[in-house]
């Protein structure tokens, strides 16, 4: 499938999607989000893929939703089309999705990165929710996800002022899992993605589903959910293989699907 706003490649069991609207710092418009959704859905269904990386350019992961596309819209336009309702494209993926972020990661770009399972940041990354400076507010989950990642005080300050966070502050406050030198970002992202993709896919997917449950439920319900999913893993061939391989002091040969 030929896309115009994203580039797709696979390396072994890892799919890499590169946001590619260089003239607009990868701003998310309807076309880009549509193409990203289609690519992600395809990889999610593809047995040959075990993990997905979303990245941008050296200058920008994405500088937000496309302001020029949004500018002429009226309240009735956005309300009637329920604008951005289906922009949770990465959050809908069942396989792990890693955001590899360099440069600007702002507004809808930061919201897209936060939909991913974790964010690996280059030391050049800058995160922010500058929508308030445009007379609007985040609309793809920013007020909710950023608050869960960094806590109310910092999220409130960032959403109310539009202040950007550098990579070091983002790591310190729990927004990103790790910061790496910009030159190593893609290599590191591919390395961690291929490690995940080499493991038991059902175990990976169920673990992802269970960690995400922590954001949606109480502690006791979450722990019960975890235990039930944990029990169900004993029905998989990969559980037998993983434990036998440990006893036999060899590498497990997971079915990966
Ligand atoms: N939408 C559309 N175009 C954008 C864009 C965006 N979000 N961000 C940058 N661009 C375009 C610029 O208009 C410019 O295009 P032209 O050359 O045609 O003028 C090009 O990308 C390069 O940008 P700059 O010249 O501004 O680059 P810079 O290095 O001087 O500044 C920046 C970089 C600080 C990121 C600046 O571009 C900027 O502030 N961008 C907007 C950031 C923003 O406000 N994001 C939030 C968008 S709203 C949103 O996301 C809502 C939501 O939650 C749904």
From TrEMBL:
Superkingdom of this protein's organism: Bacteria
The enzyme's E.C. designation: 4.2.1.17
Keyword Ligase included in the entry's annotation: no
Signal peptide location: none
Catalytic activity: a (3S)-3-hydroxyacyl-CoA = a (2E)-enoyl-CoA + H2O; a 4-saturated-(3S)-3-hydroxyacyl-CoA = a (3E)-enoyl-CoA + H2O
Matching Pfam families: ECH_1
Gene Ontology molecular function: any one: 3-hydroxyacyl-CoA dehydratase activity
Entry keyword set: Fatty acid metabolism, Lipid metabolism, Lyase
Gene3D superfamilies assigned to the protein according to its UniProt record, in alphabetical order: 2-enoyl-CoA Hydratase, Chain A, domain 1 (3.90.226.10), Lyase 2-enoyl-coa Hydratase, Chain A, domain 2 (1.10.12.10)
GO biological process, one term: fatty acid beta-oxidation
Purpose of the protein: Could possibly oxidize fatty acids using specific components.
Record family assignment: Belongs to the enoyl-CoA hydratase/isomerase family.
Annotated protein name in UniProt: enoyl-CoA hydratase
Organism: Candidatus Filomicrobium marinum
Gene name as annotated: fadB
């Amino acid at each position: 499938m030929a896309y115009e706003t994203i580039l797709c490649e696979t390396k072994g069991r890892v799919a890499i999607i590169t946001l590619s609207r260089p003239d607009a710092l990868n701003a998310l418009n309807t076309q880009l989000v549509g193409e990203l959704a289609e690519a992600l859905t395809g990889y999610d269904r593809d047995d040959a893929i075990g993990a997905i990386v979303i990245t941008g350019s050296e200058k920008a992961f994405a500088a937000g939703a496309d302001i020029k596309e949004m500018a002429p819209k009226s309240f009735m336009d956005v309300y009637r089309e329920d604008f951005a309702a289906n922009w949770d494209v990465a959050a809908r993926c069942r396989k792990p999705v890693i955001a590899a972020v360099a440069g600007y990661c702002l507004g809808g770009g930061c919201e897209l990165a936060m939909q991913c399972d974790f964010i690996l940041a280059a030391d050049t990354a800058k995160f922010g929710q500058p929508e308030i400076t445009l007379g609007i507010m985040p609309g793809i989950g920013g007020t909710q996800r950023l608050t869960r990642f960094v806590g109310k005080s910092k999220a409130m300050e960032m959403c109310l002022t539009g202040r950007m966070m550098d990579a070091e502050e983002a790591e310190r406050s729990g927004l990103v899992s790790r910061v790496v030198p910009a030159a190593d970002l893609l290599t590191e992202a591919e390395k961690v993605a291929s490690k995940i993709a080499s493991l038991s896919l059902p175990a990976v997917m169920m673990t992802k589903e269970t960690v995400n449950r922590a954001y949606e439920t109480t502690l006791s319900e979450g722990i019960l959910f975890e235990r039930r999913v944990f029990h169900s893993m004993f029905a998989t061939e990969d559980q037998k293989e993983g434990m036998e391989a440990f006893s036999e002091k060899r590498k497990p040969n997971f079915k990966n699907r």
